[in-house]
Write a structure and sequence with these properties.
Length: about 475
Protein backbone atom coordinates (compact mmCIF):
# COMPACT_ATOMS: atom_id res chain seq x y z
CA UNK A 1 0.00 0.00 0.00
CA UNK A 2 2.88 2.41 0.65
CA UNK A 3 4.00 1.79 -2.89
CA UNK A 4 0.58 2.76 -4.28
CA UNK A 5 0.45 5.93 -2.15
CA UNK A 6 3.82 7.02 -3.49
CA UNK A 7 2.63 6.56 -7.07
CA UNK A 8 -0.51 8.62 -6.46
CA UNK A 9 1.47 11.42 -4.76
CA UNK A 10 3.87 11.61 -7.71
CA UNK A 11 0.97 11.76 -10.18
CA UNK A 12 -0.74 14.57 -8.21
CA UNK A 13 2.54 16.49 -8.02
CA UNK A 14 2.96 16.23 -11.79
CA UNK A 15 -0.59 17.45 -12.41
CA UNK A 16 -0.22 20.46 -10.09
CA UNK A 17 3.22 21.32 -11.46
CA UNK A 18 2.24 21.44 -15.15
CA UNK A 19 0.49 24.85 -15.21
CA UNK A 20 3.43 26.57 -13.49
CA UNK A 21 5.81 26.15 -16.44
CA UNK A 22 5.73 28.24 -19.62
CA UNK A 23 8.14 29.35 -22.38
CA UNK A 24 10.03 32.66 -21.97
CA UNK A 25 11.63 34.83 -24.63
CA UNK A 26 15.10 33.60 -23.72
CA UNK A 27 14.06 29.95 -23.89
CA UNK A 28 12.29 30.52 -27.21
CA UNK A 29 15.43 32.11 -28.65
CA UNK A 30 17.61 29.32 -27.26
CA UNK A 31 15.38 26.66 -28.85
CA UNK A 32 15.49 28.61 -32.15
CA UNK A 33 19.32 28.72 -31.99
CA UNK A 34 19.50 24.96 -31.34
CA UNK A 35 17.18 24.28 -34.30
CA UNK A 36 19.22 26.58 -36.56
CA UNK A 37 22.47 24.87 -35.56
CA UNK A 38 21.15 21.36 -36.36
CA UNK A 39 19.53 22.56 -39.59
CA UNK A 40 22.82 24.06 -40.82
CA UNK A 41 24.80 21.02 -39.73
CA UNK A 42 22.69 18.58 -41.76
CA UNK A 43 22.31 20.95 -44.73
CA UNK A 44 26.10 20.86 -45.27
CA UNK A 45 28.18 17.78 -44.41
CA UNK A 46 31.31 19.93 -44.24
CA UNK A 47 30.02 22.02 -41.34
CA UNK A 48 31.36 19.82 -38.58
CA UNK A 49 32.76 22.86 -36.81
CA UNK A 50 29.20 23.54 -35.63
CA UNK A 51 29.44 20.54 -33.28
CA UNK A 52 31.77 22.60 -31.07
CA UNK A 53 29.33 25.54 -30.77
CA UNK A 54 26.68 25.97 -28.06
CA UNK A 55 24.90 29.28 -28.91
CA UNK A 56 22.10 30.74 -26.81
CA UNK A 57 20.65 32.83 -29.67
CA UNK A 58 20.60 32.94 -33.46
CA UNK A 59 22.57 36.20 -33.41
CA UNK A 60 25.38 34.56 -31.43
CA UNK A 61 25.34 31.61 -33.85
CA UNK A 62 25.53 33.89 -36.90
CA UNK A 63 28.82 35.41 -35.69
CA UNK A 64 30.57 32.01 -35.93
CA UNK A 65 29.17 30.87 -39.30
CA UNK A 66 31.21 30.40 -42.46
CA UNK A 67 30.05 31.74 -45.84
CA UNK A 68 28.24 28.53 -46.80
CA UNK A 69 26.25 28.51 -43.56
CA UNK A 70 25.61 32.27 -43.86
CA UNK A 71 23.91 31.47 -47.15
CA UNK A 72 21.95 28.48 -45.79
CA UNK A 73 20.65 30.32 -42.69
CA UNK A 74 18.76 32.80 -44.88
CA UNK A 75 16.08 30.21 -45.65
CA UNK A 76 15.87 29.42 -41.91
CA UNK A 77 15.47 33.08 -40.89
CA UNK A 78 12.84 33.60 -43.61
CA UNK A 79 10.31 31.50 -41.65
CA UNK A 80 8.22 33.62 -39.30
CA UNK A 81 8.12 32.76 -35.57
CA UNK A 82 4.71 32.61 -33.86
CA UNK A 83 3.90 35.23 -31.22
CA UNK A 84 1.83 33.11 -28.81
CA UNK A 85 4.73 31.01 -27.52
CA UNK A 86 4.27 32.46 -24.01
CA UNK A 87 1.32 30.11 -23.59
CA UNK A 88 3.33 27.03 -24.64
CA UNK A 89 4.64 24.33 -22.37
CA UNK A 90 7.83 22.40 -22.96
CA UNK A 91 6.22 19.64 -25.03
CA UNK A 92 4.66 22.16 -27.44
CA UNK A 93 7.99 23.99 -27.71
CA UNK A 94 9.80 20.77 -28.62
CA UNK A 95 7.07 19.75 -31.07
CA UNK A 96 7.17 23.11 -32.86
CA UNK A 97 10.95 23.31 -33.37
CA UNK A 98 11.39 19.56 -34.18
CA UNK A 99 8.30 19.13 -36.38
CA UNK A 100 5.98 22.06 -37.20
CA UNK A 101 8.71 24.58 -38.07
CA UNK A 102 10.32 22.27 -40.67
CA UNK A 103 7.04 21.88 -42.54
CA UNK A 104 7.47 25.48 -43.72
CA UNK A 105 8.35 25.95 -47.44
CA UNK A 106 11.79 27.06 -48.59
CA UNK A 107 13.88 24.88 -46.21
CA UNK A 108 16.52 22.47 -47.55
CA UNK A 109 15.59 18.81 -47.55
CA UNK A 110 18.98 17.72 -46.17
CA UNK A 111 18.53 20.07 -43.25
CA UNK A 112 15.23 18.40 -42.33
CA UNK A 113 17.06 15.13 -41.53
CA UNK A 114 18.02 16.46 -38.11
CA UNK A 115 14.55 16.14 -36.56
CA UNK A 116 15.18 13.10 -34.34
CA UNK A 117 18.42 14.33 -32.76
CA UNK A 118 17.01 17.87 -32.60
CA UNK A 119 14.02 16.67 -30.52
CA UNK A 120 16.38 14.79 -28.22
CA UNK A 121 18.52 17.88 -27.56
CA UNK A 122 15.47 20.17 -27.13
CA UNK A 123 14.11 17.85 -24.44
CA UNK A 124 17.27 18.53 -22.46
CA UNK A 125 16.25 22.20 -22.04
CA UNK A 126 14.75 23.44 -18.78
CA UNK A 127 11.60 25.54 -19.11
CA UNK A 128 11.22 27.79 -16.05
CA UNK A 129 8.18 29.65 -14.70
CA UNK A 130 7.92 33.23 -16.05
CA UNK A 131 8.38 36.04 -13.51
CA UNK A 132 5.84 38.80 -12.87
CA UNK A 133 8.18 41.45 -14.23
CA UNK A 134 8.33 39.74 -17.58
CA UNK A 135 4.57 39.95 -18.23
CA UNK A 136 4.57 43.57 -19.51
CA UNK A 137 7.38 42.61 -21.90
CA UNK A 138 5.14 40.10 -23.73
CA UNK A 139 4.52 41.13 -27.35
CA UNK A 140 0.69 41.05 -27.20
CA UNK A 141 0.61 43.43 -24.17
CA UNK A 142 3.20 45.77 -25.64
CA UNK A 143 1.19 46.24 -28.87
CA UNK A 144 -2.21 46.99 -27.25
CA UNK A 145 -3.63 50.52 -27.31
CA UNK A 146 -4.24 50.73 -23.55
CA UNK A 147 -0.44 50.70 -23.11
CA UNK A 148 -0.22 53.91 -25.19
CA UNK A 149 -2.88 55.57 -23.08
CA UNK A 150 -0.87 54.78 -19.98
CA UNK A 151 2.03 56.77 -21.38
CA UNK A 152 -0.23 59.80 -22.26
CA UNK A 153 -2.99 60.00 -19.65
CA UNK A 154 -3.81 63.63 -20.54
CA UNK A 155 -4.98 62.89 -24.10
CA UNK A 156 -8.61 62.39 -25.01
CA UNK A 157 -8.47 58.70 -25.98
CA UNK A 158 -7.47 57.82 -22.43
CA UNK A 159 -10.75 59.14 -21.14
CA UNK A 160 -12.80 56.69 -23.18
CA UNK A 161 -12.57 53.87 -20.63
CA UNK A 162 -13.79 56.25 -17.96
CA UNK A 163 -17.29 56.42 -19.30
CA UNK A 164 -18.21 52.86 -18.60
CA UNK A 165 -16.56 53.06 -15.22
CA UNK A 166 -18.50 56.20 -14.35
CA UNK A 167 -21.77 54.70 -15.46
CA UNK A 168 -20.98 51.67 -13.38
CA UNK A 169 -20.34 53.87 -10.37
CA UNK A 170 -23.68 55.57 -10.82
CA UNK A 171 -25.51 52.29 -10.78
CA UNK A 172 -23.96 51.36 -7.47
CA UNK A 173 -24.59 54.00 -4.86
CA UNK A 174 -22.50 52.38 -2.16
CA UNK A 175 -19.21 52.64 -4.12
CA UNK A 176 -17.14 55.84 -3.87
CA UNK A 177 -16.34 57.96 -6.97
CA UNK A 178 -12.76 57.38 -8.22
CA UNK A 179 -10.51 59.99 -9.67
CA UNK A 180 -9.10 60.05 -13.18
CA UNK A 181 -5.82 58.30 -12.27
CA UNK A 182 -7.69 55.47 -10.62
CA UNK A 183 -9.90 55.10 -13.65
CA UNK A 184 -6.88 54.85 -15.96
CA UNK A 185 -5.21 52.27 -13.71
CA UNK A 186 -8.39 50.28 -13.59
CA UNK A 187 -8.66 50.44 -17.37
CA UNK A 188 -5.14 49.18 -17.77
CA UNK A 189 -5.80 46.35 -15.34
CA UNK A 190 -8.96 45.47 -17.20
CA UNK A 191 -7.04 45.42 -20.44
CA UNK A 192 -4.45 43.10 -18.93
CA UNK A 193 -7.13 40.81 -17.65
CA UNK A 194 -8.77 40.72 -21.03
CA UNK A 195 -5.46 39.67 -22.61
CA UNK A 196 -4.78 36.94 -20.06
CA UNK A 197 -8.16 35.25 -20.21
CA UNK A 198 -7.72 33.72 -23.66
CA UNK A 199 -4.28 32.57 -22.64
CA UNK A 200 -5.57 30.78 -19.55
CA UNK A 201 -8.57 29.39 -21.38
CA UNK A 202 -6.30 28.06 -24.14
CA UNK A 203 -4.25 26.09 -21.58
CA UNK A 204 -7.25 24.70 -19.71
CA UNK A 205 -8.05 22.09 -22.34
CA UNK A 206 -4.47 20.83 -22.30
CA UNK A 207 -4.43 20.61 -18.53
CA UNK A 208 -7.72 18.74 -18.38
CA UNK A 209 -6.59 16.26 -21.01
CA UNK A 210 -3.27 15.64 -19.25
CA UNK A 211 -5.06 15.30 -15.92
CA UNK A 212 -7.46 12.70 -17.35
CA UNK A 213 -4.54 10.75 -18.80
CA UNK A 214 -2.66 10.84 -15.52
CA UNK A 215 -5.72 9.75 -13.57
CA UNK A 216 -6.16 6.85 -15.99
CA UNK A 217 -2.48 5.94 -15.62
CA UNK A 218 -2.77 6.02 -11.81
CA UNK A 219 -5.87 3.78 -11.90
CA UNK A 220 -4.14 1.36 -14.23
CA UNK A 221 -1.02 1.31 -12.03
CA UNK A 222 -3.14 0.64 -8.94
CA UNK A 223 -4.93 -2.25 -10.64
CA UNK A 224 -1.71 -3.66 -12.05
CA UNK A 225 0.08 -3.36 -8.70
CA UNK A 226 -2.80 -5.06 -6.89
CA UNK A 227 -2.87 -7.92 -9.37
CA UNK A 228 0.90 -8.27 -9.26
CA UNK A 229 0.88 -8.38 -5.46
CA UNK A 230 -1.75 -11.12 -5.47
CA UNK A 231 0.15 -13.18 -8.02
CA UNK A 232 3.40 -12.56 -6.19
CA UNK A 233 1.93 -13.65 -2.86
CA UNK A 234 0.42 -16.77 -4.43
CA UNK A 235 3.59 -17.86 -6.24
CA UNK A 236 6.22 -16.80 -3.72
CA UNK A 237 6.18 -20.12 -1.86
CA UNK A 238 6.29 -22.11 -5.11
CA UNK A 239 9.13 -19.98 -6.39
CA UNK A 240 11.16 -20.50 -3.23
CA UNK A 241 10.46 -24.24 -3.35
CA UNK A 242 11.57 -24.33 -6.99
CA UNK A 243 14.72 -22.38 -6.20
CA UNK A 244 15.51 -24.79 -3.36
CA UNK A 245 15.00 -27.77 -5.66
CA UNK A 246 17.24 -26.23 -8.30
CA UNK A 247 19.88 -25.47 -5.67
CA UNK A 248 19.77 -29.04 -4.35
CA UNK A 249 19.95 -30.45 -7.88
CA UNK A 250 23.00 -28.30 -8.64
CA UNK A 251 24.65 -29.40 -5.39
CA UNK A 252 23.97 -33.08 -6.14
CA UNK A 253 25.24 -32.69 -9.70
CA UNK A 254 28.40 -31.03 -8.43
CA UNK A 255 29.02 -33.80 -5.90
CA UNK A 256 28.45 -36.45 -8.57
CA UNK A 257 30.83 -34.60 -10.88
CA UNK A 258 33.50 -34.46 -8.19
CA UNK A 259 33.04 -38.16 -7.49
CA UNK A 260 33.40 -39.00 -11.19
CA UNK A 261 36.51 -36.87 -11.39
CA UNK A 262 38.05 -38.69 -8.43
CA UNK A 263 37.20 -42.07 -9.96
CA UNK A 264 38.61 -41.00 -13.30
CA UNK A 265 41.81 -39.73 -11.65
CA UNK A 266 42.21 -42.98 -9.70
CA UNK A 267 41.55 -45.09 -12.80
CA UNK A 268 43.96 -42.98 -14.83
CA UNK A 269 46.67 -43.41 -12.20
CA UNK A 270 46.22 -47.18 -12.12
CA UNK A 271 46.22 -47.37 -15.91
CA UNK A 272 49.40 -45.31 -16.07
CA UNK A 273 51.07 -47.67 -13.58
CA UNK A 274 49.88 -50.65 -15.60
CA UNK A 275 51.20 -49.09 -18.79
CA UNK A 276 54.57 -48.51 -17.16
CA UNK A 277 54.71 -52.17 -16.06
CA UNK A 278 53.73 -53.36 -19.53
CA UNK A 279 56.38 -51.15 -21.08
CA UNK A 280 58.98 -52.64 -18.74
CA UNK A 281 57.79 -56.16 -19.66
CA UNK A 282 57.96 -55.28 -23.33
CA UNK A 283 61.53 -54.12 -22.90
CA UNK A 284 62.38 -57.38 -21.13
CA UNK A 285 60.60 -59.42 -23.81
CA UNK A 286 62.44 -57.58 -26.53
CA UNK A 287 65.69 -58.44 -24.84
CA UNK A 288 64.63 -62.07 -24.47
CA UNK A 289 63.45 -62.15 -28.09
CA UNK A 290 66.73 -60.79 -29.28
CA UNK A 291 68.58 -63.39 -27.23
CA UNK A 292 66.28 -66.10 -28.60
CA UNK A 293 66.96 -64.91 -32.12
CA UNK A 294 70.67 -65.09 -31.56
CA UNK A 295 70.28 -68.56 -30.04
CA UNK A 296 68.05 -69.65 -32.94
CA UNK A 297 70.63 -68.41 -35.43
CA UNK A 298 73.31 -70.32 -33.59
CA UNK A 299 71.12 -73.45 -33.46
CA UNK A 300 70.31 -73.10 -37.17
CA UNK A 301 74.00 -72.94 -37.99
CA UNK A 302 74.64 -75.99 -35.85
CA UNK A 303 71.72 -77.81 -37.52
CA UNK A 304 73.06 -77.02 -40.97
CA UNK A 305 76.45 -78.34 -39.93
CA UNK A 306 74.77 -81.49 -38.52
CA UNK A 307 72.83 -82.02 -41.75
CA UNK A 308 76.00 -81.80 -43.77
CA UNK A 309 77.65 -84.25 -41.42
CA UNK A 310 74.65 -86.64 -41.63
CA UNK A 311 74.67 -86.42 -45.42
CA UNK A 312 78.34 -87.30 -45.49
CA UNK A 313 77.75 -90.19 -43.06
CA UNK A 314 74.93 -91.52 -45.24
CA UNK A 315 77.19 -91.34 -48.25
CA UNK A 316 79.83 -93.24 -46.41
CA UNK A 317 77.29 -95.89 -45.31
CA UNK A 318 76.13 -96.31 -48.88
CA UNK A 319 79.66 -96.68 -50.09
CA UNK A 320 80.36 -99.19 -47.30
CA UNK A 321 77.29 -101.28 -48.18
CA UNK A 322 78.19 -101.19 -51.85
CA UNK A 323 81.68 -102.41 -51.11
CA UNK A 324 80.52 -105.16 -48.70
CA UNK A 325 81.50 -108.76 -49.87
CA UNK A 326 78.12 -110.10 -48.64
CA UNK A 327 76.30 -108.44 -51.55
CA UNK A 328 76.92 -110.15 -54.90
CA UNK A 329 75.96 -108.11 -57.92
CA UNK A 330 74.03 -110.03 -60.59
CA UNK A 331 73.78 -109.37 -64.27
CA UNK A 332 70.68 -108.67 -66.28
CA UNK A 333 67.19 -108.08 -64.97
CA UNK A 334 67.60 -110.39 -62.02
CA UNK A 335 70.12 -108.07 -60.35
CA UNK A 336 67.67 -105.17 -60.46
CA UNK A 337 64.73 -107.02 -58.98
CA UNK A 338 66.64 -108.85 -56.28
CA UNK A 339 66.07 -107.24 -52.86
CA UNK A 340 68.91 -105.89 -50.81
CA UNK A 341 69.25 -107.74 -47.56
CA UNK A 342 70.04 -105.87 -44.36
CA UNK A 343 71.11 -107.30 -41.02
CA UNK A 344 67.65 -106.68 -39.53
CA UNK A 345 65.92 -108.49 -42.40
CA UNK A 346 68.24 -111.54 -42.36
CA UNK A 347 66.63 -114.52 -40.71
CA UNK A 348 67.09 -118.25 -40.82
CA UNK A 349 65.17 -120.03 -43.51
CA UNK A 350 61.80 -121.15 -42.32
CA UNK A 351 60.64 -124.73 -42.71
CA UNK A 352 58.87 -125.53 -45.93
CA UNK A 353 55.66 -126.05 -44.08
CA UNK A 354 55.82 -122.48 -42.68
CA UNK A 355 57.35 -120.71 -45.68
CA UNK A 356 54.68 -121.90 -48.06
CA UNK A 357 51.71 -119.63 -48.49
CA UNK A 358 48.61 -120.80 -46.76
CA UNK A 359 45.46 -121.17 -48.83
CA UNK A 360 43.51 -117.87 -48.74
CA UNK A 361 46.27 -116.08 -46.71
CA UNK A 362 49.59 -114.22 -47.01
CA UNK A 363 53.08 -115.70 -47.15
CA UNK A 364 55.06 -115.65 -43.89
CA UNK A 365 56.94 -112.44 -44.87
CA UNK A 366 55.58 -109.58 -47.05
CA UNK A 367 56.79 -106.05 -47.78
CA UNK A 368 54.05 -103.39 -47.64
CA UNK A 369 53.76 -99.81 -48.95
CA UNK A 370 52.21 -96.81 -47.08
CA UNK A 371 48.78 -96.82 -45.41
CA UNK A 372 45.98 -94.72 -46.95
CA UNK A 373 43.31 -92.66 -45.11
CA UNK A 374 41.08 -95.74 -44.80
CA UNK A 375 43.77 -97.58 -42.83
CA UNK A 376 44.62 -100.06 -45.68
CA UNK A 377 48.04 -100.88 -47.06
CA UNK A 378 48.00 -99.81 -50.71
CA UNK A 379 50.53 -102.38 -52.01
CA UNK A 380 52.13 -105.68 -50.93
CA UNK A 381 55.01 -107.62 -52.46
CA UNK A 382 57.13 -110.64 -51.62
CA UNK A 383 60.38 -108.61 -51.96
CA UNK A 384 61.63 -105.11 -51.12
CA UNK A 385 60.78 -102.40 -53.65
CA UNK A 386 63.09 -99.40 -53.13
CA UNK A 387 60.56 -97.01 -54.66
CA UNK A 388 57.41 -98.07 -52.73
CA UNK A 389 58.15 -100.47 -49.84
CA UNK A 390 57.89 -99.05 -46.31
CA UNK A 391 57.10 -101.92 -43.90
CA UNK A 392 58.15 -105.54 -43.40
CA UNK A 393 55.29 -107.70 -42.08
CA UNK A 394 55.64 -111.12 -40.48
CA UNK A 395 52.47 -113.26 -40.93
CA UNK A 396 52.80 -116.58 -38.99
CA UNK A 397 49.23 -117.74 -39.67
CA UNK A 398 48.66 -116.12 -43.05
CA UNK A 399 46.06 -113.60 -41.78
CA UNK A 400 47.29 -111.81 -38.66
CA UNK A 401 50.80 -110.34 -38.25
CA UNK A 402 53.08 -107.60 -37.00
CA UNK A 403 54.88 -104.96 -39.08
CA UNK A 404 57.86 -102.63 -38.60
CA UNK A 405 59.62 -99.93 -40.71
CA UNK A 406 62.26 -101.35 -43.08
CA UNK A 407 65.71 -100.26 -41.90
CA UNK A 408 67.41 -99.71 -45.26
CA UNK A 409 69.60 -96.77 -46.28
CA UNK A 410 68.03 -96.31 -49.76
CA UNK A 411 64.49 -96.48 -48.36
CA UNK A 412 65.38 -94.29 -45.35
CA UNK A 413 66.15 -91.21 -47.48
CA UNK A 414 62.77 -91.42 -49.19
CA UNK A 415 60.88 -91.86 -45.91
CA UNK A 416 62.63 -88.97 -44.16
CA UNK A 417 62.04 -86.57 -47.05
CA UNK A 418 58.24 -86.90 -46.63
CA UNK A 419 57.33 -88.72 -43.41
CA UNK A 420 53.77 -87.43 -43.55
CA UNK A 421 53.06 -89.36 -46.75
CA UNK A 422 54.96 -92.59 -46.04
CA UNK A 423 54.75 -93.05 -42.26
CA UNK A 424 51.78 -91.08 -40.82
CA UNK A 425 49.15 -93.65 -41.80
CA UNK A 426 50.78 -96.64 -40.11
CA UNK A 427 53.00 -95.14 -37.42
CA UNK A 428 52.91 -92.99 -34.32
CA UNK A 429 56.08 -90.87 -34.45
CA UNK A 430 57.53 -89.91 -31.09
CA UNK A 431 59.63 -86.98 -32.37
CA UNK A 432 58.38 -85.87 -35.81
CA UNK A 433 60.31 -82.57 -35.57
CA UNK A 434 63.64 -84.43 -35.84
CA UNK A 435 62.94 -85.78 -39.32
CA UNK A 436 65.39 -83.33 -40.95
CA UNK A 437 68.34 -84.38 -38.78
CA UNK A 438 67.50 -88.09 -38.37
CA UNK A 439 69.95 -90.72 -39.65
CA UNK A 440 67.90 -93.79 -38.71
CA UNK A 441 64.34 -94.91 -37.90
CA UNK A 442 63.93 -97.18 -34.89
CA UNK A 443 60.70 -99.19 -34.35
CA UNK A 444 59.93 -98.99 -30.66
CA UNK A 445 56.79 -101.18 -30.87
CA UNK A 446 55.64 -103.16 -33.97
CA UNK A 447 52.21 -102.50 -35.35
CA UNK A 448 49.50 -105.11 -35.94
CA UNK A 449 47.60 -105.79 -39.18
CA UNK A 450 44.93 -108.22 -40.39
CA UNK A 451 44.53 -109.68 -43.85
CA UNK A 452 40.96 -110.43 -44.95
CA UNK A 453 38.89 -110.09 -48.11
CA UNK A 454 42.06 -109.54 -50.14
CA UNK A 455 42.91 -106.40 -48.12
CA UNK A 456 45.42 -105.80 -45.36
CA UNK A 457 44.12 -103.43 -42.66
CA UNK A 458 45.97 -101.72 -39.79
CA UNK A 459 44.69 -102.80 -36.38
CA UNK A 460 47.28 -100.95 -34.29
CA UNK A 461 49.90 -98.47 -35.51
CA UNK A 462 53.60 -99.06 -34.92
CA UNK A 463 55.54 -96.67 -32.64
CA UNK A 464 58.77 -95.27 -34.10
CA UNK A 465 61.48 -92.73 -33.28
CA UNK A 466 63.91 -90.69 -35.39
CA UNK A 467 67.54 -90.88 -34.26
Amino acid sequence: MNYLLKIMMVAVALVTAIPSFAVTDKEMEQARAIAAKHYLRYANNGSDYLDQLNPSSVGELSKSLKPKEQENIKSFNAVAVPKDYASWDKSKLVDYWSNTFFKSPGLKEDGKKCLSILAKNLNKMTVSAPSESSKPAEPPVAETKPAETSQEPQQAPAAEPVAPVASEEQSVESEPVMDEASVVAQAEADAGLVDEQPRKSSNTGWYIGILVVLVGVVIWLVMYASKSMKETGATLADRKAGENEIREAKRAAKEEQNKLREQYASSLTSKNDEIKQLKAKCVDLEGMLEAARREADSTRRELDAAKHEIASLRQRVKQGIANSPAVQPESGAQSKSRPVQTPSDTQEPAPKSQSAARPGGLPPVVFLSYVNQKGLFVKASRSVNVESSVYRMDVPDGHHGTFRVINDADILDRLLENPGQWLAGGCEIENPEDADIAAEIVTLQPGEALFSDNTCRVIRKAKIKFI
